[in-house]
Amino acid sequence: DSGVTQTPKHLITATGQRVTLRCSPRSGDLSVYWYQQSLDQGLQFLIQYYNGEERAKGNILERFSAQQFPDLHSELNLSSLELGDSALYFCASSMGRGYTFGSGTRLTVV
Amino acid sequence: DAKTTQPPSMDCAEGRAANLPCNHSTISGNEYVYWYRQIHSQGPQYIIHGLKNNETNEMASLIITEDRKSSTLILPHATLRDTAVYYCIVRTNQAGTALIFGKGTTLSVSS
């Protein structure tokens, strides 16, 4: 157990739908990062939050959004889902230099 | 962040040392070299990092050349469980700097 909790572990949904992925960071970590990993794209940085505020954006689609709540947990919202959104979604947290990753959410869009 | 170049794949016999190279010729003076690995679909795992001195921990050793343009991650006695994709990343240590992953090196350890 890395200390970073992601739920759900698996999610199957249909095209056009909307889903929410949740991440609870390691205790004390203020930064949360979201990554997408599809078979042909590798690990792509999506977005970072620090203590509730958006800090950096990577290759995140407009259909995707995220937020970090006062208790520091974060949610990644994916809408108007397409087949190509099928991927592993990882969350990581940090307080300073080191990153700790969760075990991911596997999203399958059918 | 500076870019890195790694070989796409490497093989290693179980029990032997695995030496994974990384080129980072445009690294800046305040950028560190980080190594992470990802074992089949699990979340990436931190291995080691360094600035200019060689570093060693319970998992691996990191050798950085004097000009800092390249480095080598050494797994002294590779096991089957070390089969993974290994990522070399350069970044500053400024808090909150995102890790940007490249394609990494797929290390296959066989018996």
**pLDDT average of chain A, as an integer?**
94
Order of helices and strands of chain B: EEEEEEEEE
Largest sheet of chain B: 5 strands, mixed
Largest sheet of chain A: 7 strands, mixed
**Helicity range of the residues of chain A?**
under 10%
Distance between the termini of chain B: 37 Å
Q: Biggest interface and its residues per chain? A: A-B, 29 and 21 residues
Which spans of chain A of ≥5 residues are poorly predicted at pLDDT below 50? none
The proportion of residues in beta strands of chain A is over 45%
Give Rg of chain A in angstroms: 13 Å
Poorly predicted segments of chain B: none
Shape of chain B: globular
Query: Based on DSSP secondary structure assignment, what is the total number of beta strands of chain B?
Result: 9
Tally of alpha and pi helices of chain B: 0
Rg of chain B over CA atoms, rounded to whole Å, is 13 Å
How much of the residues of chain B is beta strand, in percent? over 45%
- Please tally the helical runs of chain A, counting DSSP H or I stretches of 4 or more residues: 0
Structural class by sheet pairing and helices of chain B = mainly beta
| Mean residue pLDDT of chain B | 93
Account of the 3D structure:
The complex is a heterodimer of chains A (about 110) and B (about 110). Helices cover about 0% and strands about 55% of the residues of chain A. Chain A has about 110 residues and is mainly beta. The model of chain A has no long low-confidence stretch (mean pLDDT about 95). Chain B is about 0% helix and about 45% strand. Chain B has strands at about 10-15, 20-25, 30-40, 45-50, 55, 60-65, 70-75, 85-90, 105-110. Chain B has a five-stranded mixed beta sheet, with no helix packed on it.
Report a brief summary of the structure.
The complex is a heterodimer of chains A (110) and B (111). Chain A is mainly beta and 110 residues long.
